[in-house]
Amino acid sequence: MSSSARLRCALLFRWPYNPYLELLADELRAFGVDVQIPDRCLWFAARVRQGGHVHIVHLQEIAPFYLASTLPKTIVKSFLSLAQLTYLKLCGTKIVWTAHDLKTHWERYPGFERVFTTAVAALADAIVTHCAAATRAVASRFRVRNLRKVVSMPHGHFIQAYPNSIDRDTARRHFGIAPGVLALLCFGLIRPYKGFQDLLGAFFELPENDAHLIIAGKPFDESTARTVRERIAGHANVTFVPEFIASSGVQLFMQACDAAVFAYQEILTSGAVILAMSFGKACVAPRKGCIPEVLDDEGAFLYEADSQLDLKATLQRVSAQRSRLAEMGAHNYSKVSHWPWKQIAATTLGVYRSVLSERAVVLGADDRTVESEQRERQQQE
């Protein structure tokens, strides 16, 4: 790109109910990058080039680029997406992909999905992961031979990304949770891979009058919602809220709980764990994917993945050590606060610059480089 050009990037595609992309985009814009976040569309190449040449196309979710209602439509959509990515590369656009997951969890056409994602990984000039374990897993699963193009950086926090003005007592009264009762939260989209069956089995081992579980989030389908309802029938100490939780309502659930529980059967990167840490909550989670690099024993009860027996034993430990939970939550808040989006954006911008042949990228008409912009912002803090 020319020495006076402003770096333009497109983050594909918009996540309507997740602040991740907007938080990243805001900090990239603060560095002078021209960022667009288009809605999902089939002809994305034309959309991102409407305003002229785009230097970086940064992919996030894989499913919107290949998944359709039938296998024939999925094949056609995949071909069109790969053709457009190839076209963009021929036009000089660099492709960056953040690998949030190893698979999409839609459970449709898994073999085809893996082939498509491997092709995307081959086309990508850089691949971003959120931990070292994810780097190894992505490189292995998608046959990435050039490991130098895989870059690991933290997942940014969600502190102040959601309203947080409700106090603990008010939130617990809303759910009818008595003082002294251990309150656990399972929060987020309710899908089979999140292990809610294992969690319920382990939770029912706790004394009913001494523990309360809240399961909140939109179910994957009606069958999933029905399964939860059937499992909790007759258990007054389980609250089930099977609906999408708006941003303004997240605080109510987070403030009501003493700890957030994640019983993942499969996981790579967990934004829900970052969310719980951002609300200062202790966590229960398996040693799987990025979780052991995000959580530690000072802020979490980690158990052996795929072991329901260890999950049961871990919930017993949580109950026995409930006096530690507030301190553990404070530790998590402190830890996650060291992953601000300004830092993530600066590292991401470094990735963009590296795939643009490491030439200094000018961020505006005043000819300031990325490095000088970063130094100025640090000096002003």
Structure description:
By secondary structure, the chain is α/β, with parallel strands linked by helices. It folds into two domains: 8-156 and 339-380, Glycogen Phosphorylase B (Rossmann fold), CATH 3.40.50; 168-336, Rossmann fold (3-Layer(aba) Sandwich). The protein is built from 16 helices and twelve strands. It has helices at residues 20-30, 44-48, 63-66, 71-90, 110-123, 132-141, 168-174, 196-203, 222-232, 250-256, 271-278, 291-294, 308-320, 325-336, 341-355, 370-380; strands spanning 8-12, 34-36, 56-59, 94-98, 126-129, 150-152, 182-187, 211-216, 238-241, 259-261, 282-286, 300-303. A six-stranded parallel beta sheet has the order 2-1-3-4-5-6, with helices on both faces. A six-stranded parallel beta sheet has the order 9-8-7-10-11-12, with helices on both faces. Helix 11 (271-278) links the parallel strand 10 and strand 11. Helix 1 packs across helix 15 (341-355), helix 4 runs parallel beside helix 5 and helix 7 (168-174) crosses helix 10 (250-256). The protein is globular and about 65 Å long. The two termini are 31 Å apart.
